[in-house]
Amino acid sequence: MKTEIKKDGANLTIEIEGSIDTVTAPELEKQLKASLEGVAELVLELSKVAYISSAGLRVILSTHKKLSATKAKMILKSVNDSVMEVFEMTGFADFLNFE
Amino acid sequence: MEEDLRVCKFQGRDTLVMPAEIDEFPVLSEHLENFADELSIDLKVKTKLLIIADEIFSNISKYAYDGATGTAEISFSYDSARKIFNITFTDSGKEYNSLEAPEPDLDVPLEERQIGGLGIFMVKKMSDKISYKRENGRNILSLELKCED
After folding, report:
1. Largest CB tally within 10 Å, which of A89, B70, B78, B102?
2. Which residues lie below 8 Å from residue B138, measured CB to CB, with a gap of 6+?
C-alpha cells in the first residue's frame, strides 16, 4: 500500500494505492491518527485500491466515528467496483458519503 | 522468510506451509496472486480469493495458537473442467468453527457498529461453498469459488 497525503487548511486528502489488508490497514490507521487533528473534511481517494478486507473496514469505521464526534466529514472518492462491492455487502455503503 | 516455506507445486495445485503470523500475509497473497494469474483467473474471483485469504489467515494468526507460534497450511487448487477454485486452510490450533460465528447486524449505523464477525461474514458471502471439519487435532476450513465464463 502506498499513500499520498495532502493537507490544505482543514481539508485532508489521502490517496491510497494497493490493498488495504490485514498488514497495511494498521499502517493506514497510524497515518490517519497522525493527521486527523483539526480536520473538517477528510477525502479518501480510493480509485487505485485493489481490495479492502475487514481490517481496512475497521479503519474506515474508527475514522468515521472519530470525525463524526467532531462534526467533521469523511468522503470516499472514486471508489472502484471491487471496493464498492465490499462496502455494499457489509452495509457500510448506506452510512458513508461517496463522491 | 524463504527458508520457512515448503512449497510443493504441481499442475493446478499448490500448498503453502507458513508461520501463522500476520506479517507473513504478503507471502500468501503474492503466492495466491501468482497462482491465479497463471491460470488466468478473472480479476473479480482473484479479489475475492485475496480477501478470503486475508480474513482466514489473520484469524488463524490471531486466535488459533493463543499467542504461541504455530503454522498454517494453505492449499489451493483449480478444477478447470468444473471451473471451480478451492482454497483450504488447516491449522493445529484450538478447535474453532468460524462458520458458527454470530452474524453481524448490518442495519446498525456505523457509529454504533461493532466490527467483530464482519470478516467471516464476508468470507461466507464471497464463497459458493464452505465447509469445516476438525480432524486429528486440526481445523480444516475448505472453500469453493465458481469462476464464471
Report:
1. B78
2. B90, B91, B92
pLDDT at B121 over 90: yes
The kind and range of the H/E element at B119 are helix B118-126
**Tell me, what's the pLDDT at B9?**
43
Reading the block at residue B118, the C-alpha cell is 464482519
Q: Which residues of A touch B58 (CB under 8 A)?
A: 22, 53, 55
Cell numbers linked to B76: 489451493
Burial class (CB in 10 A: 0-12, 13-18, 19+), A68: middle
Q: Is B47:B30 a contact under the CB 8 Å cutoff?
A: no
What ipTM was estimated for this complex? 0.94
Determine the Cα–Cα distance for residues A70 and A76; give it in Å rounded to an integer: 18
Using an 8 Å CB-CB cutoff, list chain B residues near A89.
122, 125
Whole-prediction pTM: 0.91
Residues listed for chain B = 149
Residue B142 cell numbers, joined: 475448505
